[in-house]
Amino acid sequence: MWSNFFVQQDEEGRMGVAGAGQGGVLGGMKGVRVGQRRTPRMSDSQEGKIKLAFFVAIVGVTLTVLGMGTEFWVELAQPKHFSGNQTCQMAHYGLWKGCIRTLWVADIDPERTSCGPAELPGESNCTYFRFFTSGENAVIFKKSTNKSLNLASAVLALLSLTMMAMGSICIAMSLSKGVQFFLKPASFCFILSGVLAFLSVLIFHQSVLALLSSDHSIPLHHELSWSVACVGSAGAILIFGGFLFIILSLPVSPWQKCWPHKNSTT
Fold it and tell me: Is the separation of the CB atoms in 63 and 228 below 8 Å?
């Protein structure tokens, strides 16, 4: 009898310990589940808006790369009868390279007094600027460039491209992770890249004016070309895209806050 009693006590003790262990494990699992916070993922409509704003920014990036990689920032043209023969010379250059073109006077519009435009057929001689390597100033029609201004314009352009790349990385991470946390740094990068693009154009224009004032022996007509138009338009588009990302990063947009009041009044 006593042996049966002790065996029964032993079995009840084991069952109690097992029950307590299972309860502790379940309680711990519940505590872990409660402690874990799920990161709210963006909706499909929000993701679509971010992709649309990113497309706008990509247009700005494309225009910036197109403008900065070409040498049609400014055109410098001599009077078409300055040489006194059947040809005239003009120059066009950008951030990295300059070209001197020899055109036929017969191909130029009779109402135009200066040589050009650069799209006309003719001989071209292009060279890269040496102030990036040896620090020498370029000489165009006896006029010398200001290497400090040209270097500053080129550095700002490269910084603008860097900020565009960082903003694109932030948007790619936001779309892949499904969170809106990276929208604010992306907006900062795109807005700053647009501002840097504008500053690059302004400093480049100052370098052109410094070039023209360095010598007055040869009269030149100058005009900013289509590469500057691309970079300027890209700067405006990038700033606009950056503000779009700021609006999308807000938890509730301003017009969504006013929407319930409109419904209540109706």
Answer: no
Of 200, 165, 155, 158, give the one whose Cα is nearest residue 186: 165
As given in the structure block, the two tokens for residue 71 are: 């040498």
List, as one string, the DSSP characters of 122-149.
EEEEEEE-STTTT-PPPEETTEE--HHH
Residues 152-175 have a mean pLDDT of 94
Distance CA 264, CA 250 (A): 24
Tell me the two tokens of residue 95: 């951030």
Q: What is the DSSP string of 233-265?
A: HHHHHHHHHHHHHHHHHSSS-HHHHHHHHHHHH
Q: Which residue type, as a one-letter code, is found at position 147?
A: K
- pLDDT, average across residues 215-237: 92
pTM of the model: 0.77
